[in-house]
Protein 1
Amino acid sequence: MADSPMPATEERASFTASLPRLEEALREAGVIRPTETIGIERQFEAGQSNPTYLLAAGERRFVLRKQPYGHLLPRAHDVVREHNIIQALDGAGFTVPHPLFASEDRGIIGTSFFVMDYIPGAVHSDPALPNDAPAQRRAIYGAMAGTMARLHRIKPSVLEAAGVKPRGDFIGRQIGVWRGAYLAAATQDDPRIEAVGQWLLEHKPATENIGIVHGDYRIENLIFQGSAVAAVLDWELCTIGEPLADLAYCCIWYHLPQSVLNGLANQDLRALGIPDETEFLDIYSRESGIDAVAARNYFLAFAFYRLAAILQGVYKRALDGNAASPLALTRGRVAELCLTQAAAFASRA
């Protein structure tokens, strides 16, 4: 059984109706003043899996992130876990919004939720950064690589307070999860699902680096102020494991055409001022102390295999009538392309 989220219009209406109870909870927690009321400024388009709202109380702005209404799978959309991870990283001095309040009390707004500071800035949905000058693009990519490296240098024990601990064999467990997810959502037989998954298991690197893994590190999940990263968002998939999984996922866009997820593969990076993949890996290696080149093809195969499973799930939910985005029905073709790329990088590793 899959998630069955409430349609977006009903989601917004149900949340709006809960605002008086939310105000009371935030007053009691000291987040807003006794005389302040809350208004919804907008719902963010990104982060649809966990509805996210910009709220106003007087002159202040803050962000509420919640589970969707409707039937949810067990352990899915664990926003309180995400809050606890952000809280731990904030305490370690990492670049995240400051968390303010979290609750699993469904009597407040009907779902678990958390509230955090609003960080003004730019969120770039197109990796080619069409509205920026070449020098600015170069600086943005340098900051993206450097911030990821800084995350991977943080001791994993920082997340113990959030209940996140290393479990061992990160790569093996991930392959099992995503192979199973793809097969569960498969809409046609494709022997590559099993073949690439088995190849990844049989060719795992002899040793794993251990670090905090964001799980969805890409330019669209970063807030920039100028060319500096002001905050890293969307920590739902965060865990402890192999940092090179984050790096490879971030590099996927170098291997996708512009027509697919705004990829960079057929664009003139030198003219754009964007570091090519080799330079991006060099920046990361220099900042993190981790060799990003030796197992590059393996982890790109892994990243594409994982993304194929994610997009296949989106496509299957669309076929079943449970997808939030109108683009969901196009994801089946992209999932096939990602599986093709996974097989190609496996053959080169």
Note: The domain at 134-348 is CATH 3.90.1200.10 (Aminoglycoside 3'-phosphotransferase; Chain: A, domain 2).
Protein 2
Amino acid sequence: MLLRRNALILLPLLVVACGSTSSFTPGGSLAPASVNHPLDVQVKLDSAHSASQSITPDGGTLQAAAQDGTRYTLTIPKGALLEDLTIGMTPVSGIDGLPLSGKSLAAVQLAPEGLNLLEPATLVIVPETPIPAKELVSFAYQADGKRLHLFPLSGNPAQTTFQIQHFSGYGAGQGDSGGIQQYPPGSSESSADSQATDIFKDSWLNRGGEVTDADTAKLCNILIDWYKGSVIGDLNAAETDTSKLYAAGGQFLRWEKEASRFCESNATVQGEVEAGKKSLAKGLQHAYHEAAPKCELKLAYQWSRWAELLSLLTYAPDLAWDPNVKADIKKCQVFELEVGGSITFKGTPITFTIQKGTIPLTRTGDSTFEGSIELPGTYEGQKNCDYSGANVKWNIKVRADNSDELVHQGSIFDTDVTMTLSYAGKAKCGDISRAVSGSYPIPVSPFQLPAQDGAHHDWTSPGFQEGAVVFTIKDPKGYLEQIGKANWGGK
């Protein structure tokens, strides 16, 4: 639910533009008085005119135009998203079962369905044909037409503008809102949306947009009913059930923003804000400590960021996000270096290969990881000779350093490798068997590897004729991918 301080901001002053001729219930008849279920409708999407693009945490704007010329603009502010996300917008070409008598419709469906924004976005709809102000009915629905209910507008008097914090469907049609109001809203939040729409529309039509003290008192009572109806109950359930946390937390986020706008001096509402924050903090702690041990870092970060943005760190200081110092996150920094390849000595037929192997890298300091391994190899020399008894061994030691703690995308490992080749045994050429042995340090210059799974360095020393030893970084816990892609080092 998105309420506004002033109906001049909330609803258009004279007319609201709306546009297409669409599929409505003929005559816009009201639902029977005995109806006891929410209003579900059939939404027809104009998929040919949909639009999508990736929006970053810095925000962005997405636009779409329907076949009839109606224009849709969605503006997502900085801080609304935690990571880059593909946002979609599909115009609605018709709605079957919508109990409105007019023939104008302007609606759009947003994706991904159910997304919670941390800051409100602005959706502006600019159709071709205006609707008379008294006949304007604004609404929202879930999924593909479930639980359609009244939803308040805000914004430009020449446009249909919504302030939204949850992705579903939004639109405006022509007729009498009583047809929709005959159906129960379906949830405490939908009921709050519907009641707020009535308050603001009355203010807009009869008082030039002034929201009186009596209006504010009504709005606070609506928020209290919403809180008791679902907000606190859903939060309490989510304290120990992470599957319910995203929906419960998103609902509280929307409720708390409205409470802070209208009811800062209402002791009852502010007491509910405090109780809600404590309950949400418990749920976030539970979810974080479920995700972090499993190295589900995107989830762990999401819950930590919510705690920060909702000022919950006072109640849950252990949720403060700092991968550089958090022990449970450092445990996810498990890396490996895969090694394999071959070298041929100049001026000789002798080639040594390294059997591919993986070196576990163990943290030895704040930003250093070390490991060692002994790998078998093969010896190839003169033709028609059997060197399988040469017992080739490669002793490899690795030290990798990253002063940025691998938090930022594009960080690198400064890698120093020491390799020693040794062999001892017998070679057989025809009927002649002879002992062979040797030990050589293989000079590998320090090199850099990008901090990403699969990054590799093909090393060839000028002391050898051909061949290459390939070093490949491995990230079995997915730390580099999760941290790097989200750029979580910054705010």
Note: The chain has a mean pLDDT of 85.
Protein 3
Amino acid sequence: MAARQMGSTNVRLERMCVLVASWIGVSSSLSTNAAAARVPANRGKDDGQPPYGAYPHRSRKLDARDLATVPMVRRATAAGRKQTTMSTRLPVLLLATLALGACTDHTPMDAHAAEASAAATKAPAFAPPPESAIPEGPYGDMVRLGREIFMHTRKAAPAYVGNGLACVNCHLDAGRLADSAPLWAAYGMYPQYRKKNHHVNSYGERLQGCFMYSMNGKAPPLGDKVILALETYSSWMAQGAPHGVKLEGAGYPKVSSPAKKPDYARGQAVFARDCALCHGADGQGQKVAGDYVFPPLWGPDSFNWGAGMHELDKASAFIKANMPLSRGGSLSDQDAWDVAIFMDAHERPQDPRYKGDVAATRKAFHDTPMSLYGQRVNGHLLGSEPAH
């Protein structure tokens, strides 16, 4: 029934559009040549010819005789015999303007559907529960252990960490901060296929990859308490979030391509201005009582060549959204790209998938313009002398 009503409405609209367009075309002649517009009052009523619109595919071109069958046009015609050109044209043009507003391919129902579609495709917002809501008992204890591992990875999981980093260095605010690859947004997206290892990964496998690459360590077994605790912490944080739906604030927001090609020298200047205060002029971070309070960005205690942060698009996205600390979004897109290339153009630990040859390793795992591995920067072949 609804479909028939819509079809009928559309037909009426099409006929109105044709008629209104014709009104506009002849209104000038009605006003400037009243004699040409003077037609019998009973035209279309008694001469056996139906009013225009009865046959939507009528081949004869509309003329003033047809328009005379429309009451408003008849009144406009009569007025044309007595009034000036402007006063005659205004009512017709006003009506035409209003009517043509409806003569489009998009009805109000179409607009409503478009708005609904846009709302449906927008990533839903989500807020994780406060840490004060972690429950008591064995489950809560596992959540708290997961948080402790996340915050102090080298101390809490020393067997699996090979550098000075912790999970919180790339996932700020204990994995809670939106646009900083928060755990609550990642958890519900697994299992998922990953091009990095060419198979469907569980969430536990994704965590294993973080230990191998970002922590420059080794992957805990999937049944290990370290993995279970991190999974439990993530699951607790994501409670109430829709599964399999990308949430607002997930991952790192993409940064637009820079106006200029990313440049090492410009990036060095951005680093000195905005990054060195925390990460040190040499990029090696800062320690307090033997523990890093600001992480190293390259060198032996940083992430290795297999970590996602070594790729320019990922690094610039993280930097733009989150750096300098507490001032995320303050850098321009160009600054974010420039400082990313400066950071990633330094040596770091070798990719654990290294095939004994830099060129072969690049071809197998780094064949993208976003990776500097196996590329020469300032005369140095990156990956050829990895940091130890």
Note: Confidence is low (pLDDT under 50) at residues 1-109.
